Amino acid sequence: MQLTKLCVFLLVLPFIHSELVQVIQLARHGARTPNSFEYLPNQYVEKAGDLTALGAVQQYFLGQEIRKRYVEDLKFLSEEYNSSEVLIKSSWKNRTILSTYAFTSGLYPQAEGVWLENPYADGFPLEQLLPLKNRQNTVTREDIQRTKLNEEFAKATVNIISSENDLHFHAIKEKNCPKAEKIFKEIKKSSRNSDLESYLKIALYPRLVESVNKHIGFELLNLETMTLKKAKSVLDNLRCNSFHGLDHPDVDEPTLKILKKSRYSYVYKLMLVDDLVRSVSSSRLLQEISEFIQAAYVKREGTPKYIFYGAHDTNLEILMSVFLDEKHIDEGEHYNIIPFSSMMSFEIHQEKETVEGADGPELEDVKYIKILFNDEPQYIRWCADYKCSLDQFYKIIEHHVMPSLEEFCSLGNVVANAEATVTPPGTPSASRCVDDLICEEI
């Protein structure tokens, strides 16, 4: 009997393969205008911080890449949109809503739609359209010049998370959790932050001010009023303008390196240094991700196989700080400065594993998680591996999820609802941030 069982096992073994059970993805919005510092007036027709036509094109082709992978190649998702297997959510910010609409149009292209004209297409380096490492689709200049989007289909498909008491994407900002926000403000006043500012006043600010003012020909920046927040806004402008092929501050490489390193220090050494702040920032997303995975594990009817969140770079950074080894984050510049349309993926796999049973070797279903950032597998520090058992993954989440989050945050603070003020890419701005260097930091 045991010999027969062993023979059957050896015959079946070559055909054992990993089965994809569920995919959960968070993507940063597409390319936007600078959200605070304006190097030159009227470089964009959109408002500060809004998605541009190039950003919408990015997200459309990001959706096309996901379609190629999970619909066409792996046959994991149906050819047509099916609400029982796909759930798409978005932050309430204008740029994330429009990004998610464009992504949805790429994931499930519709025959009808409106052609979006992209004024940034000429001369744009096509290889830089998406930060994914394993792009499958070929994109031509003509493709990015005119892209068909079906916003009506997207509106009926995308779930927008309300700005009111938003703990998914803006738990500390927008004053949704006053207690955590207070702690965060105290961190900014800490000696650690003061030491960083003191260092930057010597090593960065003089060089940055000189570089920008010399390039533009008049005093746009003032050394006396420079802060890390303003310096980060200059970096933001440089990133946005250079991506869109527009004139930008001429910052030399050593200064740029310090500037990027300063942003890393601010995000990972200051903003995410406090466990409570990190837990408040990540709890709602982690809890929801856990619930989706558990529902798929027990095969609960109606559980989506694919979940997508239209999010912000800060959301990805928070999840990176939870799961990934800080050494890997520090060493890789692309972790420090998360590109537009970057994607963090949680893939839940199931495969057969050999275990020793009473009558010899047996096959047992084993589920595990893989985390990818822009297609690259990530080393999960709590598992000391590039994949993590489902049980261990739950333990990581439980460690970072704050019980009774709503009670802790004393919800009831209502912020202005932005869902009704969505403006499409290319819409002229009525006002610009000209005098104030810092208007909004997201």
Task: Report what the structure shows.
The protein contains 16 helices and ten strands. Strands 1, 2, 5, 6, 7, 8, 9 and 10 form an eight-stranded mixed sheet that branches. Helix 3 packs across helix 5, helix 11 crosses helix 12 and helix 11 runs antiparallel to helix 15. A hairpin with a 2-residue loop joins strand 8 and strand 9. It is α/β, with parallel strands linked by helices and about 450 residues long. The chain has a single domain, classed as Rossmann fold.
The largest pleated sheet is described as: 8 strands, mixed
End-to-end distance: 65 Å
CATH homologous superfamily designation: Phosphoglycerate mutase-like
Task: Please write the string of helix (H) and strand (E) elements.
Answer: HEHEHEHEHEHHHHHHEHHHEEEEHH
β-strand number? 10
Residue runs with pLDDT of under 50 for 5 or more positions: 5-15, 412-422, 428-442
- Average pLDDT metric: 85
Structural class: alpha/beta
Task: Estimate the helix proportion, in percent.
Answer: 40-55%
Q: What is the radius of gyration?
A: 23 Å
Bin the strand percentage: 5-15%
Give the name of the CATH architecture: 3-Layer(aba) Sandwich
CATH domain class: Alpha Beta
Task: Briefly note the CATH topology name.
Answer: Rossmann fold
